[in-house]
Amino acid sequence: MSISKGAYRQKAEAKIEEGQAKLKEARAKAKGASADTRLEAEKHIDDLEKKLDAARRKLADLGDAAEDAWGDLMKDLDDTWDDVTGGIKKVLDRFK
Q1: How many CB atoms lie within 10 A of CB 53?
Q2: Widest CA span in the chain
Q3: Which of 47, 32, 4 shows the shortest CA–CA distance to 94?
Q4: Digitized pLDDT (tens) for each residue of the chain, 96 residues in all
Q5: Domain span at residue 84?
Q6: How many folded domains does the chain comprise?
Q7: CB within 8 Å of 42: residues ≥ 6 apart
Q8: Do the Cβ atoms of 16 and 55 come closer than 8 Å?
């Protein structure tokens, strides 16, 4: 079963919004941490925000992708998302 570009775009946009919300939560938690922990967490959060920005750019490219190429773009987005969610979990776990 294949997913349409429109359906995939909606799913990806929701994931990006979710990621942004979790990064905002992580940044808020980092503010209450010790200086060293805060600085390290903020560095990771900044890196993850850059990855989310890259995912947004890839998502924008989705509309221009030919049918035979959008599967590769979708895989790139999924890989980026997996990387971001793993990073977010790692950062949030530091504050449990």
Answers
A1: 11
A2: 50
A3: 32
A4: 477 878 888 998 999 999 999 999 999 999 988 899 899 999 999 999 999 998 888 888 777 777 777 778 888 888 988 998 999 899 888 877
A5: 5-93
A6: 1
A7: 27, 30
A8: yes
Instruction: Report the alpha-carbon distance of residue 77 to residue 79 in Å, rounded.
Output: 5
The structure tokens listed for 5 are 């570009």
Domain of 52, CATH number, reads 1.20.5
The structure tokens 């941490």 sit at: 33
Long-range pairs of 42-49 with CB within 8 A, sequence gap ≥ 24: 44/87, 44/90, 44/91, 45/91, 47/87, 48/19, 48/23, 48/84, 48/87, 48/88, 48/91, 49/23
Look up tokens 């890989």; give the residue. 79
Record the pTM. 0.82
Provide the 10 A C-beta neighbour count for residue 9: 17
* 63, containing H or E segment: none
